[in-house]
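Hey, quick one: can you model this chain's 3D structure?
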Amino acid sequence: MHRAGIVGHRYWIAVVFLLLAAAPGAWVPVLANVLEAKGWDKSITWAFLLPPLAGMISPILFGARADQRIAAEKLLGIIITGGAVFLYAAFLALEKADSPKLFLVLLMVNALISAPGWGLLTTIALNSLEDEEKSFGFYRVWGTIGWVVVGWSVSWFGLDDSPKVGTIGAGVRVLAGLCCFFLPHPPPRATDAKGWRSVLGFDSLRIFRDSDHRVYLISTFLLSVPLAAFYMHTPLHLRDLGFQFVAAGMTVGQIWEIVAFLMMGFWMRRVRIKYIMLVAIACGVLRYVLYAMGGIFPHFAWVLVGVSLHGICFTFFFETGRVFLNRRVDPGVRAQVQALMTFASMGFGSLVGTILCGWLHKHMVNGGLGGWAGYWSVLAAMCLGTGIYFFLGYRGMAA
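Sure thing. Here's the predicted structure for all 399 residues.
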């Protein structure tokens, strides 16, 4: 499967995970503060709304191309590098322009091009590793390490509210795109597209026939709705509580995410998927309960402890779920199924969540109807509802 020499070696999977995660890690956690410092606070919701819109359009189509005829690693390199150009232009506009419109348009184009990237890289990793259940976490954890290191660096250099974070992210993305061409080459496993459903990547929808797959993907959507508030409003709450090093503080979740990834293979071999994911959802509930406590007893320590639980929630529900789906679906549609996962979480789920959380924040925090405590309590209740649905709906006995 692997080409000789340096090109095609599996360690490039870890390298690309590190760089691809470090790029958004430079600017996503502090974007709300950057926009507020610019005086564009009314554009915060839009800035977090546009990437999910892109996540609904392009991932499944690109996933179908990777399944059918285009080498996934080359496709990944092209879209990651191409998107970086628009990411750089977007933050240049943020720094120089007087209106947020150009920034938002360029950010949307960047997201439209690069949205399939994470799903494609996951597909390459899962199809290139000999025992993906055991080893995937050890490769994927490098993405979290990249996110943590760049987050600390942003705070170390005092860039927590500077547009320069976008330039850093774009530069790291270019390097990630170049490294993609050295990735292992998992050959397309599907035949050429036959009919419009295959061309558009809709073959993956057949997994909804399985009740467990259906319950998991619906739960993914439901959990992604309150999750949209994590990067959109946690930095604002921390700032209101007097915490200055936002980028570094937001990496507390990734530190625990590293631990969770290193333990992923151990727990997947010993505990049913259902219970792993229920623990993840429980951490998501407790995360926002602690946030709410930070609204009742104002101190940033409550929020930082809540942030730490985010890493466990994210890893054991979303990333474990990717491995779970990959091992249970037809090899010919694996890239499309990973794209469908991206659609449910980073696409449709984040889109609905951004709109809903933006509306709730406007009326509950800025409007004084419950403040931060009430806002986070509502989101905790949404996570709890997702957990109840998953507990009652998922019936799998073997996985």
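One thing worth noting: Residues 235 and 246 are 6 Å apart (CA to CA).
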